Amino acid sequence: MTNPLHKVLQQTEQVIVGKPLQIRFALACLLARGHLLIEDMPGVGKTTLAHVLARTLGMQFQRIQFTSDLLPADILGVSVYQRDTADFKFHPGPIFAQMILADEVNRATPKAQSALLEAMEEQQVTIEGVTRPLPVPFFVIATQNPIHQIGTFPLPESQLDRFLMRIQLGYPDAQAERGLLSGVDRRDLVARLTPQMDSAELLALQQQARQVFVSPALLDYVQAILKHTRESARFAHGLSPRAGLALLAAARAWALLDGRGAVIPEDVQAVLPGVASHRLQQTQGSSNANSDTLARELIAAVAIP
Description:
This protein has about 300 residues and is of the alpha/beta class. The protein contains 14 helices and 11 strands. The strands form 4 sheets. It has a 5-stranded parallel β-sheet with strand order 2-5-8-1-9. The chain has a two-stranded antiparallel ribbon with strand order 3-4.
């Protein structure tokens, strides 16, 4: 692993204790130029993870609290009439930052949620007929409460597909929770963090991740996984070509985190739960399995070429 990435992981794990795999998923998602959805109960550290990554990576950070009365203009910005110039001046919204925390994104109405679509896909926003580019690098971390909780609006499939990965943090184990209860307040720890790289270094690493080698045999393996999801009676819909590209991008980033210049099947298997879990819908009547179980089934069902 390259030295800057090692320092990023090490510093993040000092605050988000007991979750090395989830931290690695989040960093891989960023290196792959994707966006991350974290779905879990309130209070397990979703927001803290975003704050820690922003400070550790030296990224300009904005937090948007999604609520039922949030409007698209609250996210994107608005033009205000200026008396002295007799003209309208655009005031950019919080979306114009390098890292966006869309906190409790499914508490907002679909109209407000849709304000993120163009930004996440094109890294730009179109407001009042004018297209404005967003800063680079650009990374959205959205947190989502379980859909059975009161006051939530499920994300449509088109918006879910904009997220390269979905993960869950879960409750900490006993040892990690003991450290949380007896240690320093997490907010104080976040305030003490120092950046371990700058934007130029992060962009270079993102470019390096795109250049990680993928062999024809590895592409055969990815295509076999995609084909299995489309032909299996287990799933209502198979993985799309965009999901296949997401799987490759995440596997490349995973290989880079391991300091390798080529993707191996184990990289694909490692990132498959995060990439596929929010894109696969099980058919009615099939056993209700979680994302990890589905990923294990896929890995077992598809042979490595």
